[in-house]
């Protein structure tokens, strides 16, 4: 089975289990699983190739899943594999994330099936602006607020904000993840990794794992993995292994994150980091350690390697890094898992803070943003942990239950 199918099966399993526990009727389940609106648009762009201008058409999507608790919110990805099925599943996940962290947003996702690496800046700008024009009737500062995702970045958000503002007045709050000069938020870049580290620390404290005695292994050293590594090292944890797409590096005595960052800046990879030994991405997951942070891809921990994982605590920085069958095996062995739904929610939380700052025209400093992020994440973690403890269920079950219950209540109260 390919990874996309495994992820869909995993998500279906976790949701079905929560629906059963909440005793939801068939009609309620159908409503909660259905998209509010699914939009597909054609995005024409003239591309300049081999000295010739040729018109190309790309397929664009925006799925607005549920807005019972607030405007739709979710990223836009530019990637060749983008399709309605994938965008639909990701839009749903956003609904549960925003509900779990209790911010007044619903869930959405969008994207264009395109390889942005094949476009020059002029073409990428034209694509971003044309896609924004096509989405303009369904997005809005209080309706649907896009953000960056795979293949998009603050510059793409700046073009979209400019395009939307041409016909709606100056509207910084129409997208989040903007450059700082255009209303982007301090702390947004590191928010997800910072949140991962904060929640790892909360969970470790609950398990009486002292930072200086806790070895940490992180797979993926991109935006999320690197900022999680920085924050965990600052809290006193010993990061013993790191990896990127080219492979991993390990040193039982601990790795200096500053040296790793400098090495990757200079060489574009962690490979060859002085003072470390090489290790494959697969072996890295099975290293003896207290805390494992998968921060790269989905479905990296499956039935095939779950029993070989030695970590006591796994913090899912990536979306769906553990399949549902592997999750069962790990939970049975007493491994504590902070689920993706909770672990990487710092990103959308910081997006919410950016939107609030834009609406108020009142920017906050980095300390305020990260301070509010930490206290909101702590409250969310505590609510999940209390429910898990009361019901004798794991953190993932509790997180899904809490999120679904909030959405279901809002749906019912509004009389949808
Ligand atoms: P990124 O592209 O910045 O970094 C990804 C890292 O994973 C890189 O170090 C890359 O080399 C590595 N990688 C890629 N393929 C790999 C492979 N086959 N094996 C091992 N490592 C591999 O991405 P990111 O923004 O850090 O996101 C990481 C994960 O976190 C993704 O699953 C993403 O969906 C999720 N996530 C990110 C955010 C965010 O705010 N960036 C928010 C929520 C969830």
Summarize the biggest pleated sheet: 7 strands, mixed
Q: What CATH architecture label of the largest domain applies?
A: 3-Layer(aba) Sandwich
Give the overall silhouette.
globular
Bound ligands, each once: nicotinamide-adenine-dinucleotide
The SSE order reads HHEEEHEHEHHEHEEHEHEEHEHHHH
Query: Hey, roughly how much beta strand do the residues contain?
Result: 15-25%
CATH homologous superfamily title of the largest domain: NAD(P)-binding Rossmann-like Domain
Provide keyphrases for this structure:
2 domains, Rossmann fold, alpha/beta, globular, five-stranded mixed beta sheet, 416 residues, 47% helix, 12 strands, seven-stranded mixed beta sheet, single chain, binds nicotinamide-adenine-dinucleotide
Topology (SSEs and partners):
Elements: H1 3-21, H2 26-33, E1 37-49, E2 52-66, E3 72-78, H3 84-100, E4 107-112, H4 121-135, E5 144-148, H5 154-168, H6 188-206, E6 215-219, H7 223-234, E7 238-244, E8 247-250, H8 257-267, E9 277-279, H9 281-285, E10 291-294, E11 313-315, H10 324-332, E12 336-338, H11 340-343, H12 346-360, H13 366-391, H14 395-414
The structure holds nicotinamide-adenine-dinucleotide.
